[in-house]
């Protein structure tokens, strides 16, 4: 089996160590679009233990969600949560049903003043679900949005 790296191969072990000590990995739509959709979030099957894997969090507009993407069809799909706007969730019952049928969790979030995802509210929601650590995967825009003081 070929290993699909989520980062350059030279940092694979460091990334896996971080993943082993985090509750969830957060990516947004831009990052998901950059991935090979059939192999999204793949890890080394030989050493894979689902109990040690963080929840896959995907911040995405439901209008842009592609049902054929690997994250919604792989054997770890039940370890995935889609984060989207509350109005989009209410307006897209077919997509919501598709996710529910696959065991993919759905988290409603509000928009901020710019009409984008309210990450502050998202972090409060994740904290209330007992998540205490989040790994943001390779997206400087997302990191800046989450850390406005940086």
TrEMBL record:
Q: What is this protein called?
A: Uncharacterized protein
Q: Which organism is it from?
A: Bacteriovorax stolpii
